[in-house]
């Protein structure tokens, strides 16, 4: 979608659409409803006319009813992020002016024509870049950037392992580590290995029965002593094994339990407990890693804590990502669907057919 400066995203006449679930479950629970008009922003809030938002791995976890940080259950509007133009300001909000383009981490509510969000959560982004490219920066690239730059401190010449390099966060991590001048080894399903190679990574299938043997080999190629940094969304067992592939001084940045999330189709009492146990096991594994002597580290990265605790860094990091996008140093790999096809976006995720980032556009 190519938007010119000053050209607002179009909203259909006759209402404002939202992607909702009224219960947790498979993609079939995803529907698009149309409200007669968007809600008004309250004090401290702004109304944003959404141009693009993503359907990412966390939206899928939310839809399945597995996300531990959800404040309210269904009915809810999906969408962990958005990029759009400010339409109006609530009481006590001095700016920025209507028409300004912003990127927002919403947790829920981003997959819509309009969203009311706290003004403090909205970061200004340029209007001359494509909203489809900016949407992946808001959550996925920010997550990857903060792990690659702050947690791993990736440097030129290092060798970095990215588990799940075909996903939204994983693709961003591969690109950002490559941009730092690192060699990257990345894992994905067999059908997505070409994607990793196109991103400049050495590709390894995570379905290879000898996955860990292959990764050990890659970690030691050319006489090296292990990976300098590892990005790992897979879960506790994977983080335990990743730790053993680190060079002295290396770090594992863990950020999810994606293996369990993909295996569990939807929330039941037991699946929810099983998923929670997997998350607990990951935290326990990281706590043990912190107590062990030696110079190898492992830490959990959480974008919500990071942006809440370090708002200035959030702003700076997003601005840096926008610069990298403008210079062509990063290039989001996107599949674009109209907002009305949100259910299809979830079906593609559940079928394992998404590479990079799925983006919904509102049209106009
Ligand atoms: N902590 C945070 O702040 C934070 C921020 C953003 C996202 N997340 C979480 O991180 C996870 C990834 O998010 P995303 O948006 O990037 O999701 P995504 O686009 O759906 O990507 C998921 C990735 O995981 C890989 N994968 C799935 N099962 C795997 C396995 N058993 N072994 C190795 N890799 C496996 C997939 O590889 P293939 O498709 O090639 O099989 C794919 O690369 C989600 O669980 C999300 O909730 C956490």
Briefly, what is this?
With 364 residues, the chain is α/β, with parallel strands linked by helices. It is built from eleven helices and 16 strands.
Number of strands: 16
Question: What is the averaged pLDDT score?
Answer: 94
Ligands present: NADP nicotinamide-adenine-dinucleotide phosphate
Shape: globular
What is the H/E order? EEEHEEEEEHEHEHEHEHEHHEHHEHE
What is the radius of gyration? 20 Å
Strand content: 15-25%
Tally of helical runs: 11
User: Which class of secondary structure composition applies to the elements?
Assistant: alpha/beta
Portion of residues in helices? 25-40%
Q: Low-confidence segments, ≥5 residues, pLDDT <50?
A: 1-12
Separation of the first and last Cα atoms = 9 Å
Major beta sheet summary:
7 strands, mixed
Structure keywords:
globular; 25% strand
Q: Topology of this structure?
A:
Elements: E1 16-21, E2 30-35, E3 45-55, H1 57-64, E4 76-77, E5 81-89, E6 101-105, E7 114-118, E8 122-124, H2 131-151, E9 159-162, H3 168-179, E10 183-188, H4 193-198, E11 202-205, H5 211-220, E12 227-232, H6 236-243, E13 246-254, H7 258-263, H8 269-291, E14 297-300, H9 303-309, H10 311-327, E15 334-338, H11 342-350, E16 357-361
Parallel strand pairs: 9-10, 9-12, 10-11, 12-13, 13-14, 15-16
Antiparallel strand pairs: 1-2, 1-4, 3-5, 3-7, 3-16, 5-6, 6-8
Protein architecture, described:
The chain has 364 residues and is α/β, with parallel strands linked by helices. 35% of the residues lie in helices and 25% in strands. The longest helix is centred in the C-terminal third of the chain and has 23 residues, at 269-291. Bound molecules: NADP nicotinamide-adenine-dinucleotide phosphate (NAP). NADP nicotinamide-adenine-dinucleotide phosphate is lined by residues 56-58, 61, 139-140, 143, 163-164, 166-170, 187-189, 192, 206, 233-234, 255-256, 258-259, 261-262, 301-303, 349, 352, 354. NADP nicotinamide-adenine-dinucleotide phosphate (NAP) is lined by residues 56-58, 61, 139-140, 143, 163-164, 166-170, 187-189, 192, 206, 233-234, 255-256, 258-259, 261-262, 301-303, 349, 352, 354.
């Amino acid at each position: 979608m190519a938007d010119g400066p000053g050209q607002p995203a179009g909203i259909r006449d006759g209402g404002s659409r939202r992607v909702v679930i009224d219960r947790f479950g498979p993609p079939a629970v995803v529907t698009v409803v149309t409200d007669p008009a968007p809600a008004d922003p309250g004090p401290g809030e702004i109304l944003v006319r959404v141009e693009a938002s993503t359907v990412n791995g966390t939206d899928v976890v939310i839809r399945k009813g597995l996300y531990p940080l959800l404040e309210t259950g269904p009915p809810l509007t999906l969408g962990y992020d958005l990029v759009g133009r400010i339409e109006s300001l609530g009481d006590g909000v001095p700016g920025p002016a209507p028409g300004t383009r912003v990127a927002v981490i919403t947790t829920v509510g981003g997959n819509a024509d309009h969203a009311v969000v706290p003004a403090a959560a909205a970061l200004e982004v340029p209007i001359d870049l494509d909203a489809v490219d900016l949407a992946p920066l808001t959550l996925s690239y920010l997550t990857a950037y903060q792990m690659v730059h702050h947690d791993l401190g990736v440097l030129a010449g290092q060798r970095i392992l990215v588990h799940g390099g075909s996903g939204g966060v994983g693709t961003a991590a591969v690109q950002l580590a490559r941009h730092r001048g690192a060699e990257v080894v990345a894992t994905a399903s067999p059908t997505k290995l070409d994607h990793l190679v196109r991103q400049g990574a050495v590709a390894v299938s995570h379905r290879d029965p000898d996955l860990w043997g292959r990764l050990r080999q890659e970690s030691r190629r050319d006489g090296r002593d292990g990976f300098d940094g590892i990005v790992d969304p897979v879960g506790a067992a994977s983080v335990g094994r990743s730790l053993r592939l680190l060079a002295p001084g290396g770090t594992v940045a863990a950020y999810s339990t994606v293996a369990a999330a993909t295996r569990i189709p939807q929330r039941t009492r037991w699946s929810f407990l099983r998923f929670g146990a997997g998350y607990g096991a990951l935290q326990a594994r990281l706590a043990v890693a912190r107590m062990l002597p030696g110079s190898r580290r492992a830490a959990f990265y959480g974008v919500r804590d990071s942006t809440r605790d370090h708002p200035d860094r959030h702003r700076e990091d997003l601005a840096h990502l926008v610069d990298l996008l403008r210079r062509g140093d990063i290039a989001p790999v996107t599949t674009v669907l109209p907002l009305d096809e949100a259910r299809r976006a979830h079906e593609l995720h559940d079928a394992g057919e998404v590479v990079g980032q799925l983006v919904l556009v509102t049209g106009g």
